[in-house]
Structures are given as structure tokens and as C-alpha cells.
Amino acid sequence: MAIDVTEILQDTFPDLDAEALATLAPLVRVQPYPPGALICREGAYEDVFYLIVAGEVAITKHLSAGEERVLRYSGAGDFFGEMALIQDQPRSASVRTTQPTTLLEFDRDVFEHLMVSSPGLAWRIVSTTFDRLRTNDQAALDDLRDAYTILARLDQAKLDFIQIAAHELRTPLTTILGYADMLRDHPAAQDPVVGGIAHGIAQGAARLHEIVDGMLDITKIDTETLNVARVPVLLRSVFTELKHDFRDVLAERRLALEIEQGDDLPLIEADPNLIYKTFYQLLSNAIKYTPDGGAIRIASWLSDVEGIGPAVVVSVQDSGVGIDPAHHDLIFEKFYQVGTAAQHSSGKTTFKGGGPGLGLALVKGAVEAHGGAVWVESDGYDERRCPGSVFKVVLPLRAPDQG
Length: 403
Ligand code: CMP
Known about the structure:
The protein is of the alpha+beta class. The protein has helices at 5-12, 18-24, 82-87, 108-117, 119-185, 192-222, 235-245, 247-252, 272-288, 359-369; strands spanning 29-33, 38-40, 48-54, 56-62, 68-75, 79-80, 94-97, 101-107, 231-233, 256-261, 268-270, 295-305, 309-318, 373-377, 389-396. Helices cover 43% and strands 22% of the residues. The longest helix has 67 residues, at 119-185. The structure holds adenosine-3',5'-cyclic-monophosphate.
């Protein structure tokens, strides 16, 4: 059946006069396509506008997971391919025929001429395009929501794995620790070589125990099953205990640890175990990222903090390599490490020694479980200049009600 281009144009653009139609008709191509033909390719720079004379096309968009979503099917009288021309951008979607389809094709200059000479058409195209942009936004939002759901599921799977692995590791570790203790007490350990080996095993196993405990804590924080005790805690005694626990490392690395706090600092209502872990982590980080001979200072004071109320603020300041502001929020996310994992040694207190990337997530979880807040201040990362970092922890005097 012969196609009368002028007639189709007249039906489609009723506000064009005979002269305009006569000018337009020879510039338009009539093109039949078999089913499955790719007319527009998402992301491609293409310069043609289409009007469907007969048949049907499917308009689809790629999703992040590699799948395709059908936005809609269009039939006779509909147009497509205008968005790339109006926006001067690549195709926003792919368009394929679903059955034998005949299209009218307009090149960019003809399309532009049409838009100018037919205000009715221009208006229809603009309003349709707005609708499409809105639908595409919605599709992108749905896509994001789907991706978020998948990520949350993967995150949970990772936490489940960590929890199982940590539980499984605990039992043999306890055995190793027990045997190492027995070996240390054994007369054979009088021999300096055997004694040294026994000490090495005990030390390594104790470190592993700490890591495994941290892994379990993180899974608890994430599932919000962390039990927060509320007893009066004297922060000064926590810091004194830490200074004692880290005394060998501090001496070995020639690091000065200064603890400054007024005698009138009140007790806080908190979980002593979690508070100890929090400052243990912050102090071991300060040691890890401060070169030998540097200084660390823990200061605390009473303050009325907006949104929290009466609280003790603790700052843990070091003279270390500092942290790039781009990482200030991310370092509190679990598994996040600055730099690649391969660059990290696993030492707890060796300079720039890494770790499993859970420490600060634990700090954040523990502090927030107390109704407090934690953040870092640092001018940036510089291994030569060592601008240092300050971690600030706000702990309310009274823990909020647990839900
Ligand atoms: P363009 O971006 O040039 O190429 C792909 C075409 O698909 C696009 O122009 C529109 O004509 C059409 N398109 C894109 N998104 C939608 C949508 N949500 N609904 C209908 N058509 C669309």
C-alpha cells in the first residue's frame, strides 16, 4: 500500500498550511522496519526524529544491574527520538520495533524547522518530553531503590558471614590461648628460646582474639542488639587504665601521651566496657598514624551540647599524618580503609599499620548507642608535615532511654 506522506503530515500537524506541508513532504523519509529493529540506541549520538505511521515500538532503559526496563510501548501517531535533539544529548533510551513498523524519519534540521513552523507541534513535543523526563526520573529512582535493596542484602550477608566466622574462630582461639599460657608456665619455658616462642604465640593469639571480638561487636551494633549497660563511669580512670595498657608501645615508639582533665569532671552514665573499647580504638589509631617521637593528647571537659544536652566532650589529638577531609565521614563506615588493603600491614600499633577497617565503625556505633556523637577534624593527609587529627567524642552525662 502506497503511503501518502503529505496526508500523514497533515493529520499529524493540523496547524501546518498547504505550502508548509509541500515544503516538508520531500524532506521526510518513509521507512519500513521488520520486528526487532533497533531504531534508537541508548547513549548513542543520533540525529533523527521519528513518527510512527503503523506498527509498534518498545522504549527501554538500561538498569544498573545490566537488565533492561520497558518504559512504554508506542503505536501509530506517537513520536520518539525528540529528546536527544532538544537537549543535544545522547539518546535517553533505546527504541526497538516489536512488529513490522513504518516510521517517518526527520533529520535534525527538518525537525528544527518543524518545531519553528508548527507551534502546535512544538507545544505537544515539549509537554510530552516533560512527561517523559519525569517518568525517566522515576525510573532512575526505582533503579536506585532496587540497587539500595540489593546492597543492603549484600551488606547483611557480609555481616552474617562475619558473625559465623567470628564464632567459629573463637573456639580454636581460646584453645590456642590456653595452651600458650600452659606453655609459658611450663618449666621448659625457662629456656629463653622456648619462652620467646610461647610469648609470641600468646601475643598473636591475644591480638586475634581482639580482632574476633571486634568483628562480633560490629555485627551486634549493626543489628542493634548491642546491650548498653548504664553504670557511673569515671572517664579519668578509663584513660589511666589505657595509658597503663599502652605503656610499652608508647615507650617503644617514643610517643608522649598527655591526659588533661579537670578534677571536677562528673561521672557519666555509660557502659564501661564499650567506653573502654571506644577510647582504646581511638588511642591505638592515634598511635598507629603518628610517627615515632610524636605526641598524643587526650583532653576532656564538660559542655552543654546542642541536641545532646549536658555532656562530657573528649578530644583525642595526635601529631600524626592527618586525614583528608574527603574521608572524614567515610572512615566511620565499616570496612572502609583509606588507601588500598594491600598497603596495610596488620599491626595494631605499628606506624600506619592497618586493620580490618572495623575500629571506627565500632567507635561510632558505641558512642551513638550512648546517645552521643563522634567526628574527626583534620586539615588533611600529609606524611611529611604531619598536620595531625583530632577525634572528638561527645558523651551525654545521662544515657537516653533505651527503646
Ligand atoms: P531520545 O532520547 O532522542 O531517544 C530515545 C527516545 O525514547 C527519547 O528521545 C524519547 O522519545 C523516548 N523516551 C525516553 N523516555 C521515555 C519515556 N519515559 N516514555 C516514553 N518515551 C520515552
